[in-house]
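Q: My labmate handed me this sequence with no annotations at all. I'd like to see what the chain might look like in three dimensions before we decide whether it's worth expressing. Could you predict it?
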Amino acid sequence: MRSTPFFLRLDGQPVILLGEGEAAVAKRRLLERGGAVIVGEDNTEARIAMVAIEDEAEAVAAVRRLKLSGLLVNAVDRPALCDFTTPAIIDRGSVLIAMGTGGASAGLAKALRQRFEGLLPSSLGDLADALFVARGAIKAKWPDPDARRRAIDAALQPGGALDPLMPHDADAVANWLKNPDASQQSGAFTVALRSNDPDDLTINETRLLGSADRVYHDARVPKAVLNRIRADALVYPLADVDDGQPSGDEVVITLLSADNTG
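A: Here is what I predict for the chain of 262 residues:
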């Protein structure tokens, strides 16, 4: 691991930003989004700085000055000069996911962020907030710490009542507390492909395949799509389908190729 990740609370904190142009504007937007106060190099209270100066000599000189003043410095597009790097961020309110490559490739970090954006429902932050509010009720229901841990783990597992990769309404945590053994996601579903490209799957289709217990597919479904099915799901040819109905809390999917859907 080249870098150790931390989450900094910058709300109201001064941060030095040097430079102009598109890169500087992007850094300003990131800092202001976190509540930081942008200040100049003469500020004596700042503890971190960002340098977005295009000219190489000027950028190196600025980094040197700032480091001699005891600041931690990020230099845009110059990873060798950086004390820290800025990750690609997925923001779901209370849930903040950061992806970095240690400065090796900002493009790769961006591509990963875009891929994972499609997997995480917009309600994820609300789920985290609801679990925080319900801490007292959860502790009261399961006074034993081990029992409480097992109950929470079961609810958050794939296909569980609070599966974080599935969308939930505002009452999801309350409903789970009323009936912790119930699953929010079960039933029989049909996923009809529009092409052989797995990237053409919708967000909901991707989530269904990732939570499936059983999948029945026709022979023309490409392997690239089958690879999106949950690894421990039972996968059968469509010819072997029984009544296709779920047993208990199962998620059962019939997966049809683009050729089969006409």
